[in-house]
């Protein structure tokens, strides 16, 4: 993300500003959603649904102002692909994932898709890895069982943030 912001500063200040606001929005919304999910095991629609519009407008503005329409296609495809993937996981094993996670996946897919397919794969992998490590840790300290519910939203958000912080080459 830092490298992309630095590159955009020299390309077009409006693209830089739009991506900077999108990044701040992702961090702020991600922190709020993580806190809520950890406490209630819910990802409220009143926060997730507006995130589609905010992320879509800011990332689309960034891509178009920077003259990079391929990023626009990738961000839309990334949102759709990640939403479909999480929907399939929920369809196969409904007890393992809530529909809030599916809805959040679309938003995170917009961000990850903007940065590229490597980021999309990396963010998805990181989310499942972090969630799995948390589950194993709960088992090891005897604070959970194999049947325990784990809020997955925070790990999805952490995985996405980790992926946009690391340059991937796909």
From TrEMBL:
Keyword Lipoprotein: no
InterPro entries per the UniProt record, alphabetical: Prepilin_IV_endopep_pep (IPR000045), Prepilin_peptidase/N-MTase (IPR050882)
BP GO annotations: methylation; signal peptide processing
Gene Ontology molecular-function annotations: aspartic-type endopeptidase activity; methyltransferase activity
GO cellular component: plasma membrane
UniProt keyword list: Membrane, Methyltransferase, Transferase, Transmembrane, Transmembrane helix
Residue stretches making up the Prepilin type IV endopeptidase peptidase domain: 26-136
Pfam short name (any one): Peptidase_A24
Membrane-spanning segments: 14-35, 47-66, 72-89, 120-140, 152-169
PANTHER family: PREPILIN LEADER PEPTIDASE_N-METHYLTRANSFERASE-RELATED, TYPE 4 PREPILIN-LIKE PROTEINS LEADER PEPTIDE-PROCESSING ENZYME
Entry similarity comment: Belongs to the peptidase A24 family.
Protein's name according to its UniProt entry: Leader peptidase (Prepilin peptidase) / N-methyltransferase
Species for this entry: Crystallibacter crystallopoietes
Lineage of the organism: Bacteria, Bacillati, Actinomycetota, Actinomycetes, Micrococcales
